């Protein structure tokens, strides 16, 4: 019996071999192409999905950083805002924002299709990829929206903030994102800025500066927290309640940033290795740059400034992580760390704009800086262009500068109009009494540290 089974198997194999021999050459080629293509396509989808999952985890990092750098009586309010940025922003980006950003371009200015993700047909390769690509990009949209919450923390009405977050996710972020990134979805003609050669690989300007400049507009309109400035206009420090929490948030952001930058390839190839190297090195030198700068200025290595230096380095390298060499990333990160400290002090003490977590400096200023640095440090043999310091054309730097100016004008301008209108119609700020008691009690009737707090809500 065993011998007969073996003979049967041998005959079956011979029959299959004969059938393959009789197949036309084109059929053989098609089969070989399918074998080669499908694993790569699946690998790209898996890599992009993994990157999106990591970027989603950044929401936890932002929540912990913002919560730790502000006071305990507002912790619950801050957590609520960060959760709602994602829970409300993702459906709005699905319904409206994705279409404005990645729909068919109307003169390179705005998308005009893919609302509700078009048909969402998952039975075709294009449909499968569009769904995956939406997921990845929705995480970026949520990141840009949640940046705003930190700059107006501890004194903003929750209901008014939700309206601001909705407008950022559905309209403000997607329209400017269309200008630079519309061509990322296969078959798109591209936005006007991207077609000029503007480079922002993973979003120093598209994501971070947009959020940072809207945050600046919000901090100006809402005004400083009670007690932040004395009668002579001198800034007073209002320390956060939990530095270990803030540090944990920074570590989470650092970890998840590899999804932000490496995942932006949307292709599982060898470039993700040096993108990870650049991302890590810039974060390290950003941390060092900020620590040494604040140490020199105050005589002490301040923890919160050092933590923001790490984030500043990450934001700055995001635009050029695909374009620069590891040596370039070391320089960009270190300079960004210095810039964070100088910017925080300038905004706080000279402009007298109260930004409790340094969101404007980390995301707006360092995002613009990192975008400009692509025009200087883009290295031959790495990305798609060559920067001025390596013998490249000045036109690259000029296009980068144009992009920085355009994103500032759009995000700050639209943010200021949005906050002003909402302030007039609904009111942006809680009453002084509510601010003194804390937003946990007055806005949510909750207490983040029930039974443990060392402050009074009365």
Automatic annotation (TrEMBL):
Major site of localization recorded for this protein: membrane
Stretches assigned to the Ammonium transporter AmtB-like domain: 47-449
Coiled coil regions in record: none
Protein biosynthesis is among the record's keywords: no
Protein name: Ammonium transporter
Signal peptide limits: 1-29
UniProt-listed InterPro entries: Ammonium/urea_transptr (IPR029020), Ammonium_transpt (IPR001905), Ammonium_transpt_CS (IPR018047), NH4_transpt_AmtB-like_dom (IPR024041)
CC annotations in GO: plasma membrane
One GO term of the biological process aspect: ammonium homeostasis
Annotated GO MF terms: ammonium channel activity
Transmembrane segments: 45-65, 86-111, 131-153, 160-181, 201-222, 243-260, 272-295, 307-325, 331-347, 359-382, 394-419
Keywords noted in UniProt: Ammonia transport, Membrane, Signal, Transmembrane, Transmembrane helix, Transport
Organism: uncultured Desulfovibrio sp
Superkingdom classification of source: Bacteria
PANTHER family in alphabetical order: AMMONIUM TRANSPORTER (PTHR11730), AMMONIUM TRANSPORTER SLL0108-RELATED (PTHR11730:SF89)
Localisation per UniProt entry: Cell membrane; Membrane
Membrane topology per record: Multi-pass membrane protein
Pfam families: Ammonium_transp
Entry similarity comment: Belongs to the ammonia transporter channel (TC 1.A.11.2) family.
